[in-house]
Write a structure and sequence with these properties.
13 helices, alpha+beta, 3 domains, two-stranded antiparallel ribbon, about 15% strand, Cathepsin B, Chain A, about 45% helix
Length: about 400
């Protein structure tokens, strides 16, 4: 930071000399000089905030900028899109800004079909899981943010409460239909509402002077291969080292997760971050000890005590069964850090904007992760080789 400010000071001195030559009036000179100073001060403050002085970052993966999901329940798409943008950087490509709402838009249609098929006995909401993004990519591809802003309803920021209510009204009306069979129009009507609120999905778009379809963009520009990524969980109610249907409301598609002991799941997180991979994280953030504003999440004293008494596996299962650990939120793990007492924390990129204590990031303690993690989504090469062999992942 000190070196940066010295360099900026040199630039400012050179700029001042040039201004002395160029200025026409003293007023213009002082105006430009003051504006330049303000820009430098602002830059210095931002750089200092990124250093996060309460923590020492030991491992950090390069990632894209922090985004905001605003008033939507699309954290699953924001976290996983951030994860994909980070994978692009890991592969040595240029930073991309991908459309998160594209994935939410395309998933809604399948969600509606499944909800109607089970006579309204499933889950229909804004929520989802990491695999919802990869399922969309397999079928439809990816689009950049500039090609699909998804703001066609008089707002400048995403707000999906009304949209969700309208869509839910449609699928519930279809389920309650008394004509004994469904019409051929309901799905077209459903998609028309999505188009009205979010915009028609582009079948073709221009990006940097070239025309792409979403599938071609996914293959040639993003280069993301959905089959290379897996989800892992850890609960004793399921058989270990097998694929299981994790019973979550937002797992509406009934995708399967590898179930592993928690120590091996934590080893996977550490192995991934230590080897340049990031981790898409799904977990519980309902605890009072989780604060996005302060940028920190610790396990409560009571939970820490119960974890010690019961053991990690037993306490995890206990909180899963009594619904005190639920899949509230998805975020993106991008680093490992230590606090001043040498306690391990995980640098976590959130999707609630950048106006908190750590510019949109927060630090989650290792014991918080051990209890409050529901699942993770990683590249298969980010799994330690011994575990990958147990799971039959090649």
């Amino acid at each position: 930071m000190r070196h940066l400010l010295i360099e900026l000071s040199k630039d400012l001195n050179l700029f001042t000399v040039k201004l002395r030559i160029m200025r026409r009036t003293n007023l213009l000179y002082w105006l430009i000089l003051i504006l330049t100073l303000l820009l430098i001060i602002g830059f210095g403050t931002s750089a200092q905030a990124q250093e996060h002085p309460d923590f020492t970052i030991e491992k950090q993966v390069k990632t894209s900028s922090v985004k905001s999901q605003n008033n939507t329940g699309t954290c699953w798409s924001y976290a996983t899109t951030s994860f994909i943008e980070t994978e692009v950087l890991r592969l040595g490509k240029e930073e991309l800004d991908l459309s998160e709402i594209f994935f939410a838009r395309m998933a809604y249609t399948d969600k509606a079909i499944k909800y109607v098929r089970v006579h309204g006995m499933g889950n229909f909401s804004q929520g989802g899981q990491a695999h919802d993004v990869t399922n969309v990519i397999r079928r439809f591809g990816i689009v950049p943010q500039e090609a699909y802003q998804a703001l066609e309803y008089g707002e400048t920021k995403h707000m999906h409460s009304e949209l969700e209510a309208v869509l839910k009204g449609i699928v519930d009306a279809v389920v309650q239909n008394k004509n004994k069979r469904l019409s051929t129009a309901w799905l077209r009507a459903f998609n028309s509402v999505l188009d009205a609120y979010l915009g028609v999905v582009p079948q073709q778009f221009d990006y940097k002077g070239e025309s792409y379809t979403p599938k071609r963009f996914a293959k040639e520009v993003v280069g993301f291969i959905s089959e290379d990524y897996v989800e892992l969980t850890s609960y004793s109610c399921y058989p270990m080292y097998e694929l299981v249907d994790l019973e979550l409301p937002d797992n509406w598609s009934h995708d399967r997760y590898y179930n592993v002991p928690m120590n091996e799941l934590m080893q996977t997180i550490d192995y991934a971050l230590s080897n340049g991979f990031s981790v898409d994280w799904d977990g519980d953030v309902s605890e009072k000890t989780f604060s996005h504003k302060k940028g920190k999440a610790d396990l409560s004293d009571q939970d820490a005590s119960d974890m010690t008494k019961m053991g990690i596996a037993a306490f995890r299962q206990f909180t899963f069964d009594n619904l005190t650990s639920t899949d509230d939120h998805l975020m993106h793990l991008t680093g490992i850090a230590k606090d001043k007492n040498q306690k391990t924390y995980y640098l976590t990129k959130n999707s609630w904007g950048d106006s908190n204590a750590y510019d949109g990031y927060l630090y989650m303690s290792d014991d918080f992760l051990q209890i409050k993690t529901i699942a993770i989504f990683v590249h298969k090469d980010a799994i330690p080789k011994a575990l990958a062999k147990k799971l039959g992942i090649k």
